[in-house]
């Protein structure tokens, strides 16, 4: 499938069962839950998946199960692969990109080593050349230790095989705006920081990869649809309603609170994360649950009023047509 790098993509957590094993059935249920809520694609083995803690066999099993769900639902699957050893990243991306049902690769800017921008571009030229599927660069400075300039990201946009960037920068600053303004049509910018979906989408991002959207999925999908439809007042209502939820979900290291809330909501068997992450505090999960309830109210109210407006418009058009 040619991936649609637009709309809402959810980077799935990796659920664990009470014995500490990867719970593939819960993962499958969660995948359907997110797609039922309005996500148009899924991401496996992202940051939120605790990918560094999975064995190779576990990671393979996660990809196989997610690929089966995505194939059944006719949506694209993006898979995280790469790292800060270019030779190893090339091998991993080549293998993942060749796996059945993998439509795109999400590959992080090499973390920890703090290479120059020249080095980052050379890294991605090699990695993209090895990939059988389009590659999304994952720009996440607070995790990698380096922030790429707009000029460097635009150089990456011109590399064959690189189809976009997941932009998880902390602010909509001049570099982010310059990237959005200069990105060619072949290069999709996706919002990667959950607090900045509205401003990034309003400035031209085509969608979002958003861990918070495990919860209140319909609200995040509605926010992006509102921006697409040019309905900024509705998008502002949605974004304002979602912000307390996003803040609550990221109050402790991700994905602990998301897992805590999914467990509380009965979607996964345990809230467990693997070390070095620690389980979320009960207070953080409770705050997130309250924020989630508040979003449901706003989004439902908004949908009701949006439907009422649609009905009015439809009635008006019908009347106009009859005259
Ligand atoms: O796994 C991801 O992809 C995401 N991880 C981010 C993080 O934990 O830094 C957050 C974002 O929503 C998606």
From TrEMBL:
GO cellular component terms attached to this protein's record: cytoplasm
Pathway(s) where this gene product acts: Amino-acid biosynthesis; L-lysine biosynthesis via DAP pathway; (S)-tetrahydrodipicolinate from L-aspartate: step 3/4
Binding site for pyruvate: 48, 209
GO MF terms, alphabetically ordered: 4-hydroxy-tetrahydrodipicolinate synthase activity
Gene3D superfamilies on file: Aldolase class I
Keyword Amino-acid biosynthesis: yes
Residues carrying the site annotation Part of a proton relay during catalysis: 47, 112
Group of enzyme by EC: lyase
Catalysed reaction, written as an equation: L-aspartate 4-semialdehyde + pyruvate = (2S,4S)-4-hydroxy-2,3,4,5-tetrahydrodipicolinate + H2O + H(+)
InterPro entries, A to Z: Aldolase_TIM (IPR013785), DapA (IPR005263), DapA-like (IPR002220)
Keyword tags: Amino-acid biosynthesis, Cytoplasm, Diaminopimelate biosynthesis, Lyase, Lysine biosynthesis, Schiff base
Statement: the UniProt record of this protein carries the keyword Phosphoprotein: no
Compartments where located: Cytoplasm
Pfam families given in the database record: DHDPS
Entry's EC annotation: 4.3.3.7
Active site: 138 (proton donor/acceptor), 166 (schiff-base intermediate with substrate)
Biological processes, Gene Ontology terms: diaminopimelate biosynthetic process; lysine biosynthetic process via diaminopimelate
Chief place where the protein resides: cytoplasm
SMART domains assigned to the protein according to its UniProt record, in alphabetical order: DHDPS
Matching HAMAP family: DapA (MF_00418)
PANTHER family documented for this protein: 4-HYDROXY-2-OXOGLUTARATE ALDOLASE, MITOCHONDRIAL (PTHR12128:SF66), DIHYDRODIPICOLINATE SYNTHASE (PTHR12128)
Purpose: Catalyzes the condensation of (S)-aspartate-beta-semialdehyde [(S)-ASA] and pyruvate to 4-hydroxy-tetrahydrodipicolinate (HTPA).
Family the entry assigns: Belongs to the DapA family.
Subunit-level organization: Homotetramer; dimer of dimers.
Protein name in UniProt: 4-hydroxy-tetrahydrodipicolinate synthase
Encoding gene, per UniProt annotation: dapA
């Amino acid at each position: 499938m040619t991936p649609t790098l637009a709309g809402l993509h959810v980077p799935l957590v990796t659920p664990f069962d009470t014995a500490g094993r990867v719970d593939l059935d819960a993962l499958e249920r969660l995948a359907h839950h997110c797609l039922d809520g309005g996500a148009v694609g899924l991401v496996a083995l992202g940051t939120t998946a605790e990918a560094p803690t999975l064995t190779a066999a576990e990671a393979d099993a996660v990809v196989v199960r997610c690929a089966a769900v995505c194939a059944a639902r006719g949506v694209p699957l993006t898979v995280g692969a790469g790292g800060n050893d270019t030779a190893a990243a090339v091998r991993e991306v080549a293998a993942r990109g060749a796996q059945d049902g993998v439509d795109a690769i999400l590959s992080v800017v090499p973390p920890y080593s703090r290479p120059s921008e020249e080095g980052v571009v050379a890294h991605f030229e090699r990695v993209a050349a090895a990939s059988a599927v389009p590659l999304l660069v994952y720009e996440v400075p607070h995790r990698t230790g380096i922030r790429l300039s707009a000029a460097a990201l635009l150089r990456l946009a011109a590399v064959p095989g690189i189809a976009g960037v997941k932009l998880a920068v902390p602010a909509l600053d001049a570099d982010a705006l310059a990237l959005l303004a200069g990105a060619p049509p072949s290069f999709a910018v996706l919002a990667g920081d959950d607090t900045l979906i509205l401003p990034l989408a309003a400035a031209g991002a085509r969608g979002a990869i958003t861990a918070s959207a495990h919860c209140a999925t319909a609200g995040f999908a509605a926010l992006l649809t509102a921006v697409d439809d040019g309905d900024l007042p509705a998008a502002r209502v949605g974004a304002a309603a979602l912000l307390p939820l996003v803040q609550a979900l990221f109050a402790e290291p991700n994905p602990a609170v998301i897992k805590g809330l999914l467990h509380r909501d009965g979607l996964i068997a345990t809230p467990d994360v693997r070390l070095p992450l620690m389980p979320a505090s009960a207070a953080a999960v409770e705050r997130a649950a309250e924020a989630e309830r508040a979003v449901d109210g706003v989004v439902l109210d908004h949908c009701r009023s949006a439907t009422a407006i649609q009905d009015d418009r439809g009635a008006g058009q019908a009347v106009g047509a009859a005259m």
